[in-house]
Design goal:
By secondary structure, the protein is of the alpha+beta class. It has one domain: Translation Initiation Factor IF3 (2-Layer Sandwich), CATH 3.30.110.60. The protein is 37% helix and 18% strand. The chain has a four-stranded mixed sheet, sandwiched between helices. Strand 3 and strand 4 form a beta hairpin.
């Protein structure tokens, strides 16, 4: 992902609310499944990371990105944003992106 694309996605993600929350259980298969579903339908997903002190937020975000075959857009504090383009979503010029719908 190029810097300009990442900057545009960061600007879009600013207004999003966290869709997925990582709790006390950490990275469970059900969490990865729900994140995968959110990425499939929305493409751009904001994640609220839990308060586990033993793992750094960037490490958790990278692990989630590897598990879901997505890209980390940004990590700020304990909030991460991931992006994965879905070629199955019909996109027309001028339509709103799927994360705004």
């Amino acid at each position: 992902m190029k810097g300009r694309e990442r900057a545009e996605l960061r600007a879009e993600a600013h207004h999003l609310d966290p869709t997925v929350h990582v709790g006390q259980q950490g990275l469970t298969p059900s969490l990865i499944s729900s994140l995968d579903d959110a990425l499939r339908t929305k493409e751009l997903v904001k994640i609220k990371l839990g308060n586990k002190d033993d793992l750094k937020p960037k490490d958790v975000a990278n692990s989630l990105a590897l598990a879901t075959n997505s890209a980390v857009v940004q990590v700020i504090g304990r909030t991460a944003t991931l992006f994965r383009e879905n070629p199955d979503i019909a996109k027309k010029h001028g339509d709103l992106p799927p994360w705004r719908k």
